[in-house]
Write a structure and sequence with these properties.
Structural class: alpha+beta
Order of helices and strands: HHEEEEEHHEEEEEEEHHEEEEHH
Helix content: 25-40%
Low-confidence stretches: 319-323
CATH superfamily of one domain: Efflux pump adaptor protein, beta barrel domain
CATH class of one domain: Mainly Beta
Shape: rod-shaped
CATH topology of one domain: Elongation Factor Tu (Ef-tu), domain 3
Number of strands: 16
Number of helices: 8
Radius of gyration: 43 Å
Strand order of the largest sheet: 1-10-13-12-11-16
Strand content: 25-35%
């Protein structure tokens, strides 16, 4: 039987001997003694719990937004009774006026000439009647009556050229200037009642109608004042969805022309508390026709339902949705 070849150690004998001299005991499992591992585990666990809580408690809102315009409540458009050229404007925005006060006047030179001529004819006819009455002549009386009617008509025509305030109030918007030609029935001046408030008229997307209710809270942003945010309350909602042309009429002819309106829309009204708003430390007054943007939250649901839509099937029904 052949002898087996001598085995050769993998390590040199000197290395094995040095290792045995340094060895004090058997080695144990690898242990990490740094405290940051435990703290990191706690931190990551806390983050996971916070994220889960945020998904369960946090909500994602669906907002319906649209253009809006500030309107003065209790305002009236004063119109021209006849057509003509504006000769003078006697008031300025913000002026307080009394009933019957003249606001503006149209060119009355032709009407005044007619009036003066009719008055002179009436005075001559009246003098002839008085002289003829002594002698028993009655034809002059008939002429005096005719000239009196002509004089009354000329006086009415002259009065129609004067634009007066129908009630006591505050002058709002001036839509005329000297030398401008106006038509009969054209709005020339806006007059607002004393103490009248302000409201916001907004055109929201039509699909929001079933979910926008009176009493809902909304947010208002005035164009040109990005830092301004105001909470308002919806007081009235139109009962039906309308087109851009109908919505423009409800917003006001001037606002409808200036705002881009498209698609089906629903019009909503909000009361605007106070008559001023704050900007750069100053109190500025609202003005009729100020453009703005209204935002209404129409729906809100937990974030987790957006991430896991199948949970909606097991979520209890909302009493508001059941109603």
């Amino acid at each position: 039987m052949p002898e087996s070849a001598p085995t050769r150690d993998f390590f040199r004998p000197e290395a094995v001997a040095a290792h045995r001299e340094r060895q004090t005991g058997q080695g144990g499992l690898l242990q990490v003694g740094s405290p940051w591992v435990g703290r990191g585990f706690v931190f990551v666990s806390a983050l996971a719990l916070l994220g889960l809580a945020a998904m369960c408690l946090g909500r994602i809102s669906e907002v319906a937004a649209g253009p809006a315009v500030v309107r003065a409540m209790g305002h009236t458009d004063v119109t021209a009774s006849v057509q003509g050229l504006v000769a003078s404007v006697l008031v300025q925005p913000g002026d307080t006026v009394t009933p019957g006060q003249e606001l503006a006047r149209l060119d009355d030179r032709a009407a005044r000439f007619t009036y003066e001529e009719a008055r002179a004819r009436h005075e001559r006819a009246l003098a002839s009647y008085l002289r003829g009455a002594v002698g028993g002549v009655s034809a002059a009386g008939a002429l005096a009556g005719e000239t009196r009617e002509v004089l009354a008509g000329a006086e009415r025509d002259l009065e129609l050229l004067s634009i007066v305030a129908p009630f006591a109030g505050v002058v709002g918007d001036l839509r005329i200037r000297r030398g401008q030609r106006v038509l009969a029935g054209e709005p020339v001046i806006t007059l607002r009642e004393h103490g009248a408030g302000w409201e916001v008229v907004a055109a929201l997307p039509g699909h929001a109608l079933p979910r926008v209710r009176s009493g809902a809270e909304a947010r208002l942003r005035l164009d040109g004042f990005p830092e301004h945010r105001a909470k308002v309350c919806i007081t009235r909602v139109a009962p039906e969805v309308v087109g851009p042309a109908s919505a423009a009429r409800l917003l006001g002819a001037d606002a409808g022309d200036a705002m881009p309106l498209s698609g089906p829309l629903v019009v909503a009204w909000c009361d605007l508390p106070g008559g001023t708003f704050r900007h750069d430390g100053q109190d500025l007054r609202f003005h009729d026709g100020l453009s703005a943007r209204l935002e209404v939250t129409v729906d809100a649901e937990p974030i987790i339902l957006r991430l896991l839509p199948w949970l909606r099937r097991v979520r209890p029904a909302d009493p508001a949705e059941v109603r």
